[in-house]
Design brief:
The chain is of the alpha/beta class. 35% of the residues lie in helices and 24% in strands. It is built from 12 helices and 15 strands. The longest helix has 16 residues, at 77-92. The chain is globular and about 70 Å long.
Length: 347
C-alpha cells in the first residue's frame, strides 16, 4: 500500500497504480516487472520499441511515491530526458491529492521529489557525480552504448546500493559482444529477454517488413535482441565496392564505439550512384584514435555521427581536430533500409 506523510488518508495499491495511472502492462512487461520486484540484480535485453523505458519509468515512480531514493543513469542527457518524460506523463495522471505534493525539476539533471522519495537522472558522461548517495533502486538505461559500463557499474553504482540493500536494473538493446553481453550471462544477475514482437501494440506484419529491409545482423540485434558477434558491419560491403582512389567524399558517417566496435564509412555521389570510398572498423579504439582514423581518410563535405554519441567522445573528437560533426537522424531502421538499397545498386 502507498501512504503519503502529507495526505495520510490517501492510499493506493500497486495493482491500482499500474491499472489506473500507468494504463496497464502488457504480458511481457508484467513479467519483467515481477523479476525486478523479486530480484536484486536484473538485466533487461530488449528489442527496439518493446516498451522497456515506459516500464522502468513506472517502476521508478512507484519507488519515489513510497519514499525511496533512486537514480536513472543513461549515456546522455537526451536519453535521460526520454525516461523523465515518461515519469512526468505518469505524474500527471496521479490523483490530485498525491500530484500536488510531487515536485519536478525539468532541466538537467532532472529530478523528482515526493516527501522523502527522490529520483535523480544523471548522464554517465560525468561519473564523478555518481558518488555519495545511498539508493534503493538504480536503473541504467541504454547500457550497451556505454564504453566502460562495467567500470561505471562496479566502481560508481553498486557501492551506492550497499547500505540500503538496493536493486540494480541494467537495460538495453544489445550492441555486439561487449560488457553488456557479459552481464547478461553473469550468474549474479537475472536476465530477461524480449523482442520487438513481444509488444502487442506493434503490428507483427510491420516488423516482418523490416526483416526484408535490414541486414540479418541488424534485424537479429535490434528487433530480436540477440547478441550478435558481427554487430557493426550492417552493410555487407564487398571489397569490389570500396575504392581507395578518392581524395574527397560527399559524406562520412561515423558510429562511435569502444568494446562495441567503432565504424566509419565514406560515400561519394556519382550521378545517381553512391560509391563507397573507404571503410574504417575497429574495437577498443579510444576517442582520439577514432578521430585520427576519420581525419586520415578522404576529406568529406559532411561528417555525420550516431546521435547517441556521448558528449565526452564529441569533445575528444573536437580536440583531435574533428570539429564539424553533426548528429544523424534517429530513424535508425529507415536509414539502414535506405543504405542497403543504395549499396545494392552499386554492388
Amino acid at each position: 500500500m502507498l501512504t503519503t506523510p502529507t495526505t495520510p488518508t490517501m492510499k493506493i495499491t500497486k495493482s491500482q497504480y499500474i491499472k489506473s495511472i500507468i494504463g496497464g502492462y502488457h504480458k511481457k512487461q508484467a513479467k519483467a516487472a515481477r523479476l525486478i520486484r523479486t530480484n536484486r540484480n536484473v538485466v533487461l535485453r530488449c528489442g527496439r520499441r518493446f516498451g522497456k523505458t515506459s516500464l522502468l519509468a513506472a517502476e521508478l515512480l512507484w519507488y519515489v511515491l513510497n519514499g525511496k531514493r533512486c537514480w536513472w543513469i543513461a549515456p546522455t542527457h537526451a536519453l535521460c530526458r526520454t525516461g523523465f518524460g515518461y515519469v512526468r506523463q505518469f505524474v500527471r495522471r496521479l490523483p490530485v491529492q498525491v500530484r500536488r505534493h510531487v515536485r519536478l525539476i525539468n532541466s538537467p539533471p532532472f529530478r523528482i521529489e515526493y516527501g522523502a522519495g527522490v529520483a535523480e537522472f544523471y548522464s554517465s558522461r560525468i561519473p564523478d557525480n555518481l558518488q555519495g548517495a545511498g539508493n534503493d533502486l538504480v536503473i541504467v538505461d541504454e547500457a550497451a552504448t556505454e564504453q566502460d559500463g562495467d567500470t561505471l557499474v562496479e566502481q560508481y553504482i553498486r557501492p551506492t546500493l550497499l547500505d540500503r540493500g538496493g536493486k540494480l536494473v541494467i537495460a538495453s538493446t544489445p550492441r555486439g559482444r561487449n560488457w553488456f553481453a557479459e552481464y547478461c550471462a553473469r550468474p549474479d544477475f537475472v536476465e530477461f529477454v524480449a523482442s520487438t514482437y513481444d509488444n502487442p501494440l506493434i503490428d507483427p506484419a510491420e516488423i516482418d517488413q523490416l526483416r526484408e529491409q535490414l541486414s540479418e545482423v541488424a534485424f537479429r540485434q535490434e528487433i530480436l535482441a540477440e547478441i550478435v558477434e558481427e554487430s557493426g558491419r550492417f552493410w555487407d560491403i564487398q571489397p569490389s565496392v570500396v575504392s581507395e582512389d578518392y581524395a574527397e567524399a560527399d559524406v562520412c558517417g561515423i558510429d562511435w564505439g569502444f568494446a562495441s566496435p567503432f565504424a566509419a564509412v565514406w560515400l561519394k555521389r556519382g550521378g545517381e550512384r553512391f560509391v563507397v570510398v573507404r571503410e574504417e572498423y575497429g574495437a577498443e579504439l579510444d576517442a582520439d584514435e577514432q578521430a585520427r582514423r576519420v581525419l586520415s581518410g578522404p576529406r568529406a563535405k559532411r561528417y555525420v555521427c550516431d546521435p547517441s554519441t556521448p558528449d565526452g567522445v564529441l569533445r575528444a573528437w573536437r580536440e583531435a581536430g574533428l570539429n564539424n560533426v553533426l548528429p544523424a537522424s534517429r530513424d535508425r531502421a529507415g536509414g539502414w533500409a535506405r543504405m542497403r538499397v543504395l549499396i545494392q545498386r552499386v554492388s
